[in-house]
Amino acid sequence: MFDKKDFHEKVLIILSRIPIGSVTTYGLIAEKAGAKSSSRQVGYILSTLKNNNLYPCHRVVNRNGLLTGKFNFKENEMEKLLKAEGIEIIEDKVVNLKEKLWIPNL
DNA sequence: AACATGACAAGTT
DNA sequence: AAACTTGCCATGT
Fold it and tell me: What pLDDT, on the 0 to 100 scale, is given for residue A75?
């Protein structure tokens, strides 16, 4: 039984634990937060955070490694932040995603 | 209250 | 392999 508040909370917790230099996906976060099929809501939550800079929103990409949320940032802020952490981006996609991917664990 | 939309993902064609 | 379809569910109109 997961109510939306729990889900939201867990997402934030997981989000705050993404290591520098790694990325993770909406689906993985959703799964660890207890609602495997709610990956969409994860993105929605991030958008409501409005890039507080309190959470590393830029380290979340879709399962393809594509920077789907980049338009929520200033121009190419997202890409810049990731590159600054050593993540290579080509054509808005994370290069070698498998290596950079961080699997959330509680 | 009903309907459309979205920072996704998995399955089918 | 790429395009299309379906499931999902909180938010906004």
Answer: 83
